[in-house]
Fold this protein.
Amino acid sequence: MNLEIGRRNNSSKRCGRNFVPTLLLVFALALPLAATEKYLIAGRPDGIALLAPPPVPGSAEQAADLASARSVFKKRTRAEEQRAFKDASLSVFSFAEAIGPIFQPGKLPRTETFFDKLKGELKDAVNVPKDYWKRPRPYQLDARLSLGKPEDSFSYPSGHSTRGTVQALLLAELFPDHCEGILEVGRNIGWDRVLIGKHFPTDIYAGRVLGQAIVREMKNNPHFQNDFAEVKAEVDAARR
């Protein structure tokens, strides 16, 4: 399945299929989450090889990216700003608005544990390309874009966009009836970072590409397949 978070066409293709093998679902509830098993092999996906470099400092492309960031920052609404700071925690329950009351803390413990584990899994995949390109954040180039606390990591690619994409793609598999709303929340998690001066638009787009590559990589891992099948079984049981 190729749930492309940056596109809105072909909705039935993106939202109508499930990659979890039926046989795994049969045994899922009898198997514990593989807490110590990694879903990603070190260096895969290789964000440096996968992503195009960010705009060159001092280039016309960089100037246009900064101008776009300024425009988005200036036009933000108070509601958008509040949402951006709220969702910056990257809690998976930011998607509850799209999924509904079934998706609340404590109601789906296996699912909650699974997404907590993902947070640690994604750290290196995001930080390696960040530390390679060392792109400054918009507010470091223009102090007028400063809002909230400064951050101690680099700008490209956006970690929030990457993680929001991963969360959205997996949740869309678990709750296919709410696919479009889930993907919209995932896009907003990334784009909201432009609204508050933390990222350039190109950082967000790169994060979406990296997030999709991470999901593709994890799907090939048998430990991930087993754990995701267990989560899918829990969700299906709760929905029934």
Remarks:
- Residues 7-13, 20-31 have pLDDT under 50 and may be disordered.
- Residues 29 and 78 are 44 Å apart (CA to CA).
